[in-house]
Design a protein that fits this description.
about 80 residues, mainly beta, OB fold (Dihydrolipoamide Acetyltransferase, E2P), five-stranded mixed barrel, globular
């Protein structure tokens, strides 16, 4: 089974070697079928502390690093100003 890959924006980098990434997905409403934007925060492991707040990054699914961290930073797509 292939690993999941998601793209999002870094919300927080205050933890050591961990970042919080906000990922937005578009899903239809169950009853009214209107397309809605649903956001979710993922904690990802960032070994070298490369990403900063506002950066657009790509994260990839991995084995659990800790109780809440199950994603790894794959690459930084765009740096924030």
């Amino acid at each position: 089974m292939p690993k999941k890959v998601k793209q999002g924006t870094v919300v927080s980098d205050k933890m050591e070697k961990t970042i919080v990434v906000k990922v937005a997905e578009h899903k239809p409403h169950k009853k009214y079928k209107k397309i809605m934007q649903v956001t979710k925060n993922y904690k990802a492991h960032d070994e070298a502390n490369l990403a900063g707040v506002g950066d657009t990054v790509e994260i990839i699914e991995s084995r659990p690093v800790s109780s809440q961290v199950c994603w790894n930073l794959s690459k930084v797509i765009e740096k924030a100003n």
